[in-house]
Specification:
Oligomer: single chain
Largest sheet: none
Structural class: mainly alpha
Strand content: under 5%
Number of helices: 105
Length: 2033
Amino acid sequence: MGDDSEWLKLPVDQKCEHKLWKARLNGYEEALKIFQKIRDEKSPEWSKFLGLIKKFVTDSNAVVQLKGLEAALVYVENAHVAGKTTGEVVSGVVSKVFNQPKAKAKELGIEICLMYIEIEKGETVQEELLKGLDNKNPKIIVACIETLRKALSEFGSKIILLKPIIKVLPKLFESRDKGVRDEAKLIAVEIYRWIRDVLRPPLQNINSVQLKELEEEWVKLPTGAPKPTRFLRSQQELQAKLEQQQSAGGDAEGGGDDGDEVPQIDAYELLEAVEILSKLPKDFYDKIEAKKWQERKEALEAVEVLVKNPKLEAGDYADLVKALKKVVGKDTNVMLVALAAKCLTGLAVGLRKKFGQYAGHVVPTILEKFKEKKPQVVQALQEAIDAIFLTTTLQNISEDVLAVMDNKNPTIKQQTSLFIARSFRHCTASTLPKSLLKPFCAGLLKHINDSAPEVRDAAFEALGTALKVVGEKAVNPFLVDVDKLKLDRIKECSEKVELVHGKKAGLAAEKKEFKPVPGRTASSGAAGDKDTKDISVPKPGPLKKAPATKAGGPPKKGKPSAPGGAGSAGNKNKKGLETKEIVEPELSIEVCEEKASAVLPTTCIQLLDSSNWKERLACMEEFQKAVELMDRTEMPCQALVRMLAKKPGWKETNFQVMQMKLHIVALIAQKGNFSKTSAQIVLDGLVDKIGDVKCGNNAKEAMTAIAEACMLPWTAEQVMSMAFSQKNPKNQSETLNWLSNAIKEFGFSGLNVKAFISNVKTALAATNPAVRTSAITLLGVMYLYVGPSLRMFFEDEKPALLSQIDAEFEKMQGQSPPAPTRGISKHSTSGTDEGEDGEEPDDGGNDVVDLLPRTEISDKITSELVSKIGDKNWKIRKEGLDEVAGIINEAKFIQPNIGELPTALKGRLNDSNKILVQQTLNILQQLAVAMGPNIKQHVKNLGIPIITVLGDSKNNVRAAALATVNAWAEQTGMKEWLEGEDLSEELKRENPFLRQELLGWLAEKLPTLRSTPTDLILCVPHLYSCLEDRNGDVRKKAQDALPFFMMHLGYEKMAKATGKLKPTSKDQVLAMLEKAKANMPAKPAAPAKPTSKPMGGSAPAKFQPASAPVEDSVSSTVELKPDPKKAKALGVSSKAKSAQGKKVPSKTSLKEDEDKSGPIFIVVPNGKEQRIKDEKGLKVLKWNFTTPRDEYIEQLKTQMSSCVAKWLQDEMFHSDFQHHNKALAVMVDHLESEKEGVIGCLDLILKWLTLRFFDTNTSVLMKALEYLKLLFTLLSEEEYHLTENEASSFIPYLILKVGEPKDVIRKDVRAILNRMCLVYPASKMFPFIMEGTKSKNSKQRAECLEELGCLVESYGMNVCQPTPGKALKEIAIHIGDRDNTVRNAALNTIVTVYNVHGDQVFKLIGTLSEKDMSMLEERIKRSAKRPSAAPVKQVEEKPQRAQSISSNANMLRKGPAEDMSSKLNQARSMSGHPEAAQMVRREFQLDLDEIENDNGTVQCEMPELVQHKLDDIFEPVLIPEPKIRAVSPHFDDMHSNTASTINFIISQVASGDISTSIQALTQIDEVLRQEDKAEAMSGHIDQFLIATFMQLRLIYNTHMADEKLEKDEIIKLYSCIIGNMISLFQIESLAREASTGVLKDLMHGLITLMLDSRIEDLEEGQQVIRSVNLLVVKVLEKSDQTNILSALLVLLQDSLLATASSPKFSELVMKCLWRMVRLLPDTINSINLDRILLDIHIFMKVFPKEKLKQCKSEFPIRTLKTLLHTLCKLKGPKILDHLTMIDNKNESELEAHLCRMMKHSMDQSGSKSDKETEKGASRIDEKSSKAKVNDFLAEIFKKIGSKENTKEGLAELYEYKKKYSDADIEPFLKNSSQFFQSYVERGLRVIEMEREGKGRIPTSTGISSQVEVTCVPAPTSTVSSIGNTNGEEVGPSVYLERLKILRQRCGLDNTKQDDRPPLTSLLSKPAVPTVASSTDMLHSKLSQLRESREQHQHSDLDSNQSHSSGTMTTSSSSTANIDDLKKRLERIKSSRK
């Protein structure tokens, strides 16, 4: 029992793996109990057993195995992770359970399999079971079949795929084991139950006895449709519904449900395709041409046998089809014709859609052969053409069918109509659009008037079928002219057709009908054939779904034309009228007179030919009146115009009479039913008068009216021929002008271009220039409609003329033809609805191409030419191609019949000579243009082969092929290309070039399609294989095309299609689909009313709005959130946005949002330790993989669930990358605030980040690296050390990323590795990086080697692990690497070691090959010339600098000059010069010594700076715009791009890598400095400011502390940041966008920077601090005043509360507030007072008066009072109305205080200024406490001691002494220097003199208005405050120097000073615009300097010294001098006041 007790103590999962069977048995029993107890399917318990379930089922002990099976079944049923075990468990069941003797074991095994199917793992189960069928053990086979049968019986044929089972059935029937055969029989019966007769063909070859048995079983089966009895988990609601129905006794759902199930299997699909081409007799092609008919018959019989195979393999059947076609068309023996037709039928049925490409060749031949009378031939031909029809679409063969309809032979006409009728039956309303119906109806209408009754009957049947298919509404417009009898006959036929339709064409009926028909039905008799043909090829689906042709598609050429030759493209209803009127007979003059006299007054008729013109005129007036009053129906138009033409008629000499006459003609044409007969009477006369100066306009009006009545095409033709038959040039030119106008008014539809072109050519050749000009104008108008193809007709004109024509065309380019204004409205009688009306003109518009005269060239394509093209000698082939090109060129536009040319050209597309391939492609391009839309019929036989050429290895050939395909697609549209399997077959080829070109082409074309091409789905499997292609370009193109496929097919279909992929591929593809789903564009909707160019710009335009919101949501989610308080609000807004972009399911409710407020990382005590233990104890998987498998992700999810907020976890494991971005943004936000949580979950965070390294999305990767930089910075601050577990599961994956192709990423990774050394020992990092050098990726190897060099350089030789020797040997191996960068890196690293370690290196690296050694020695030698290890360091730490040098090679000197040149160029880089884009701005760092020494680098001489006009200096200065500014191309693109680019650049601003940050800042600065671009930043200001202060924080906390960083890098960065900010805060509109929170943080950052003592110690630090001063002022002035005031108040409150915060900090904040107070008078109206008072209220609540008084300094209370006082003064009593935002006013003393102040101000007399009052008030306060006096004096002396506030301090001291004459200031002066004491006394004296001199002028207190806030006393202030204990001595020279500098800054000469106006502080008296601050001066000087630096070289630089020098040199001038100077300066200052 000893051992028992051992294992009894073990946990369950370990028992399950124990060696003892008893232990296992016990383990399984306990596991079973546990499984039954767990209620939550997602419980982490399940995951513990994930790896054990296979052992449960494959246990070697039978008893134990039974128990294991039971437990496994429960597990599978209940655990949500069970699906992961499917493959291994089912294969275990198959191999280890199905062979068990115990029936119970087998049953449980089957149950487990079925349970896996239920949890949606059917495919995997079926795969394993089918593999089991190959097992040698019959027991296993039987059990597998039984399982499949049960599964099918229970789940149905939708879940269990039948095709693979049916494929193996014949093999099972042949098994030697009876059990297997019996089981096969049972499953065959079960399958039959589901798919009925579809199962027969695949089983037709099994043993006849077995087949008979099966037949008997099949007969017994019930006829009802079977229903599944068990459902998948996802369908179980359906099951419940079904049970309810059954209990209610109904079964409504059942029928419907299976309705869509049965047609899922198509017998054809189940068949194996047979390859027959190779089996053709070798002499087939000779025999088929033989003279003896018997030989020909033998050849055909051989083919007949082969094509009886029900499914044929795709191949090139062109030659075979050609041979059969020849027999059908030309053979004299009718028996052979029938036999060939049967062969064609077999081919069509066996190939299905793949035969489509040959259909076009064969159809015309078969139709023409219908002239044969023999019934068997006719029947064979009918079968053939019907089978062929099913392989193509009616659209594709319509051309050929319509052409045959005009044949004279009645039998052909009859059979064609019957074929059309049968074809229509297969159509639906959508596949038989109007554009197709119109020409067919036109042809059939001719047939119903045929003399032969059989032709008429057939036509009636066809029309009846059409009526049935598309409904009366669609057909009626074409039947307007049909008389009632015939119409009734058509309707009668239509009703008869219904029977056929009802039985076979109704969708549901079709399915039932199609069960009993075996694979192919041999039909006999034409009639029988008619019925069965619909169903004999059981794949009606696609046919029915064939997309409707687009409304705007060009119609076919068989347009119905009216007898009079007018192309009737007007409204259909008009046709009836027209037809009647066109045939109006010509009346004799007598009849006309009679009719006219009936309607006209008699006098009128008598005076018509009077000799007196006045009488004639009166007669015309009466005539006009009569016409105006006449009714349309009564007006005898012909009679009236004949009267007008009566003598003198058109020869009328009086122009007034003539004008009237012409006007009347126009009236008659407008008001009457004007026929062409009437028109002919008058047109001649009108044309004759059109050139007349006086009557011309009336003639034109009349012609326009006639054109409106008789259609423009006809009128134009008549008018043109009349005009050009006379000689009068004026008439000719005016006719042309009229026509130009008329075309614009009527549109172009129906015009006969041919006739015009010949007339225009005549006109162009005319001698009269006016005629030529008019002709050219007419051509211009025609160009609008016809397009560039019009020019082809005039290419042979003289060059001069051609250039005029071109110029005219040029004018018209880009214009669109005007919408027709005439010729429409008149005809739209009520009969038609608007829709049709809208469509008709459209047809016309696109008809234009069809109107062009086309030449027939088939006779020129002779057999000699064809054989030439196919010759063996390439030169002859080229000749042939040249001839073809010549023929096409000459013909311009050609008819679609081009004989044998397609086959000949197709052969040349795979010519071995690439030049010929290109020539062929050019010819095909020509052909497309020449043939126009008719090229459609050649897509299959010529277009698809062009696509094959896209796979050519030569770039230029591919480009030519692509151009050709595009030229074709332009003519044909995309539908033809996507139909059938041809395109998918191309995509299937594993040629990377072909794949990437074809996918690229599809990605471009698919978005423009409106209807979904049916066969597009066939391309999807190949698209998926492209997604995993070895070639990266193919993968990329496939990914790009994915959204466009999805746009048409929908996500569901695409996801379903992944079913056939391997599981690994499937997951990858599904992930990509998810991604594509997010980017899927909206489908372009068909416009409501098509315009004349339906595909115009509508598609792309439709596209953008769909994708815009997507962009939007991306940018909103990536945004850095300002602070946790705002995170909530932002979360909501981003949700709203993304919902609009359909990104995030909009289920998120408010409640969920509230949840987000808690911590995101929950601290679990000892959680991390436990996880590390689990991993060591192998309880969980060790984090080690090449690519992350599902189980790792699941495991991480489970581990995270306890310590990461649920909502964040959902974001982190979402399938869409944007959610990862969101998660990272949140994590960045919470990094600072949740340090403990972050450290507690660090192992999980790092693991999750390693998963992100495997994502393909760069934005996630960038964001992850950004986060890591911040994370490691935090960890090093917290002095955390990485554990081994954390390091080993993270570093290796990070190192993978160092080999990324993108520079930015590599840099970031290196930066992270750098920082990691602070939290993880470098010696331990070394081996990981060493491992990275073994990678296959050369970039990774090089970077790792470089990193190793850096480690050695930084940490010495000790980092080399395991020993320096081993490590160096490893590194040295890479000197021989084949990649140059790796070699260099290895050499550099060893050189670094050499620099550290000396010659010992050679010992350590051991023996190297001679070549490697010499390289190394050479490199060491070279490095010796440089200062030690500089090169390596440079590469490592300053990649930026290195780049900038190389990129600026043209303007910088290399080598030692680098430093100077970079300084010289810094000013340029400021202004955004592209070449200096990489350089960094250093506005405040002019190193003048350098410039002095270096005159060579700048090109031009310059006047010295000193000669500037100094008067301007005293104007307020704006920073000048640089003169020259090229914008870097990078940013231009960015601006045109969306906000996402800006977001990205802004995110880089906060980068931990200085160079990245500087680069980003440079780019933003370029934008800010150009008004036209600056608005791009709008909306991003907060984001940018946040990034900036994050960077300030990073510098302050990290970079400044980093010993390794050179400080001038930091200064550079500071300069950039400050420069950027200054630019930003000069643009008021942008500055105002900054929000309160952000401003608060920004001010915090800036003030902290000003107080940073470390900066002062840097040589250029002073400069930085000064510029920060300027920036602060800008921020205060330009920001939204409410926001900045609010921010300052909050900041003051925070700083007073914080114990750590320095008093200096609060003081500076207050100074800023004073500055704001000073601005109040100007800004008070723009301020939201309510908000400010609320902030003051909160402040007073936190700091009541008592508490404020306890502060060390009294500044806060005085600041507050000053602010309130100023507000009271400005607003008066109204201020009390602004307390609306304060909920409880009693919480603070604000209201009481305000009331007091109001009262006080009322009491005050008006004589004193308010400031005096305020001073008085503050003085009273001070009196109260005597103790405060000392403080106050200390403060005053402090001011006197600071250089900015010295004057103010003296003034205050003077005031104070006056007020308290007894005050003792001696103690304060006692411990200061003698000089200081005399300075104070002298100062007081000066003030006294001034005051008394000026009389009593009230002065303000220092505090409220005089404070100098360039806000900060520069921290290096040389005067120590008097209150300080150290009280150092200050030498006089310092003051002198200071004065000197001040004077220089103002441009004052140091000798003459009296007449110079002085300089006062920036902040004193802001109202005086002429005064600028010292800092402003500096700035203006700087910017002037910067500008001039851009253009010139300064030769004399002494005077500039002061501008750049931040340090103060000492001078030895005497003290006496100083006093004098000081006085004079004081005088100047006071006089200014």
